[in-house]
Amino acid sequence: MQKDSAKKEYYDGALIKVESSSLVHETREKIDKLGLSSSSAQDEIDSVNRIMNGVTLVLAFFLKHFPACRRTDGG
User: How far apart are CA 45 and CA 40, in angstroms?
Assistant: First the structure.
């Protein structure tokens, strides 16, 4: 195992931590200017939010077009 990792001469990622959330945008711009790509935890949160918006739309469609799906027991 160590033999393989010793041969590795490149990295496919790096973690950069900024001191304040107000510096994230500026830091990402600097990374982009270097020709590198960047992503943040907020990107992942936004991704999940988009998926959940889609799920909500589908559920709303079924509730509107299939009233039998609605609960009638008051719960």
Answer: 9
CA 72 to CA 70: how far, in whole Å? 6
Q: What is the mean pLDDT of the chain?
A: 83
Q: Which residue has the tokens 């959330």?
A: 21
φ/ψ of residue 74, rounded to 5: 85, 5
Residue 40 structure tokens: 């943040």
3 state SS of 65: helix
Q: pTM score > 0.70 for this model? A: no
Q: Closest by alpha carbon to 38, among 48, 49, 26?
A: 26
**The dihedral of CA 54, 58, 64, 65: what is its sign?**
positive
